[in-house]
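Worked example 2:
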Amino acid sequence: MAKRPGRPTGTSRAREALIEEATRFFLSKPYDKVSTRKIAESASVDVALIRYYFGNKAGLFEATVRENAAPIIANLRQAIQDGRVETLNDAVEAFYKVMSVGPNLPSLIFRCMMLDGQDQQRQAIEKLFHDIILPVQQMLFARFQEKGVLRDDIDPELARMSFFSLMVLPFIMPQGMAALQGISLNESYLLRLAGHNAALLQHGIFKVQGEPPL
């Protein structure tokens, strides 16, 4: 078998550096305006390593999205499985805690889903959503239904949409808009926002905690 071009020798963090720089570039520019050569230059590696590690630009983009998603999905899934998400407050706080680990993911998804057509990068996002994100969402809301915390007159699918719309909005807000409103998505702010959003949701789609079933 022919050796793939650009194969690194010894230990190297070239792949990690490429993912870091690709994240920065894909967040700041439309996909078709991003240059793989510029990404490689910024990462201080040979551009041939993009072909070695990812195949092409589309492969680099998909890897960038998936690696931004990995810590978020893993932490949220583990929290649900470990029984650390038993109440609405638990769910909101857990979501913001894991999002603070990878705050770039919603922006990457939002940027690509705004594109028209069936571009490769959009297909990568859709595959990630159907393979990983949607099952975790459904797992979380299945737990809510088991615990009987959803209001009886609320459609669970619509409740799921409302919950995640509210949770993700801060992370897809343009930085300039956030700055104009004096918003800084640091840990302190996210914890305050978690409490506020939990209060809104409690009186919207969830039964107030401690309230007996209807």
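The CA atoms of residues 150 and 206 lie 4 Å apart. The two ends are 66 Å apart (CA to CA).
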